[in-house]
Amino acid sequence: MPAPFQYQKAASVEHALTLLAQYGTESMVVAGGHSLLPMMKLRLAHPEALIDINGLDLADIRLVDSRLRIGALVRHAALLSSSLAGTHLPILHDAERVIADPIVRNRGTVGGSLCQADPSEDLSAAFAALRASLIAVGPAGKRTIPARDFFTGPYETALDHGELLTEIQAPVGKASAYVKVERRAGDWAVGAACAVLTISADGIVTDAGIGLAALGATRFVAAEAEDFLCGGPATEERFAEAGKIAAEHCNPSADQRGPVVYKRHLAGELTTRALRLAASRAA
Ligand SMILES: Cc1cc2nc3c(=O)[nH]c(=O)nc-3n(C[C@H](O)[C@H](O)[C@H](O)COP(=O)(O)OP(=O)(O)OC[C@H]3O[C@@H](n4cnc5c(N)ncnc54)[C@H](O)[C@@H]3O)c2cc1C
User: Fold this and answer.
1) CA of 97 relative to ligand 1 center, distance in Å
2) Which of 32, 86, 84 is nearest to 61 (CA)?
3) What is the pLDDT of residues 137-156, one digit of tens each?
4) Within 13 Å, how many C-alpha atoms sit on residue 54's CB side?
5) InterPro entries per the record (predicted)?
6) Which residue, 13, 129, 192, 255, has fewest beta-carbon neighbours within 10 Å?
7) What was the pLDDT predicted at 270?
8) Could you give the domains of the chain?
9) What's the CA gap between 17 and 242, in Å, rounded?
10) String of b and e for 104-128 (b: at least 16 CB within 10 Å)?
């Protein structure tokens, strides 16, 4: 049973901000509720007031000026069925296919996933690799936060209390892929890796984004492997070397999903596979 709490349904973004200010630091936003409500039942979270944002107009997916703009309230299932997302950012469809089960995907939101900042969250790694921008509104107005600055630690983000994530904007036009190992269908990742590549006509990697989930990467990014790849040829040997570098620099924890040595191995293998798949899509 959760602790007692008050409930308010916001009618607009402005109304949500007013309610958050009115109820103060002990209030929390609820979107799909698939992370927050279990935490409340376990009393790991005990907000005094829940501000329900499900009625807000933040569920569109649009392509504007070479950026896919995804509303914070887009459900996992809607992202998975979006042909715009599938065509322009296949990394998101790869990830969504293996996020949880239909029940969670029908309710959980993209914004809620990012704000939860669970170190195993698949979309956090994908948007970090994409170098997406997150749009937040708060009492001081609107601001844009690079995805790589948004995640400040496990379950911690750059959002201030009273701010709302409203949209995620990701650049299109790059080759991308997401691969994940899970113990059973619909489970959280044992480990996952994703790659976003720009490859020139003469086969040189001009831009690389590599994300890792559940593998202890700082802010979900394998920065050293990205640096290694940029400026060199897009070859199988270099993808394997980038995988080794990603494995060396991540810091996974041992848990019921496996020991450190296994997860480090996964980091290397999955990074190489994600790069290979992204490069094949570029071709
Ligand atoms: C059984 C199960 C299996 C799962 N498996 C996976 C998996 O395999 N991979 C994976 O990545 N995830 C998985 N998840 C997690 C799930 O995808 C997301 O955590 C969940 O969808 C979060 O979104 P939500 O809308 O439910 O957020 P909520 O639970 O409503 O909120 C989560 C947090 O974000 C805050 N928040 C929500 N929206 C906003 C906003 N717009 N602005 C500011 N703050 C906000 C809330 O206050 C809260 O702190 C699983 C969840 C369950 C229950």
Assistant:
1) 16
2) 84
3) 999 999 999 999 999 999 99
4) 14
5) CO_DH_flav_C, CO_DH_flav_C_dom_sf, Diverse_Substr_Oxidored, FAD-bd_PCMH, FAD-bd_PCMH-like_sf, FAD-bd_PCMH_sub1, FAD-bd_PCMH_sub2, Mopterin_DH_FAD-bd
6) 255
7) 98
8) 6-52 (3.30.43.10), 61-171 (3.30.465.10), 175-282 (3.30.390.50)
9) 44
10) bbebbbbbbbbbbbebbbbbbbbbb
Q: Which of 48, 113, 127 to mutate to test the pocket of ligand 1 (most atoms within 8 A of CB)?
A: 113
Q: How far, in Å, is the centroid of ligand 1 from the Cα of 274?
A: 24
Q: Is the CB of 122 under 6 A from ligand 1?
A: yes
pLDDT in tens, 42-89: 999 999 999 999 999 999 999 999 999 999 999 999 999 999 999 999
Neighbouring-strand partners of residue 75: 109
Residue with CA at minimum distance from ligand 1 atom 18 = 113
Q: Is 124 in the pocket of ligand 1 (CB under 6 A)?
A: no
**Residue 99, ligand 1, Cβ within 6 A:** yes
**Does ligand 1 come within 6 angstroms of the Cβ of 109?**
yes
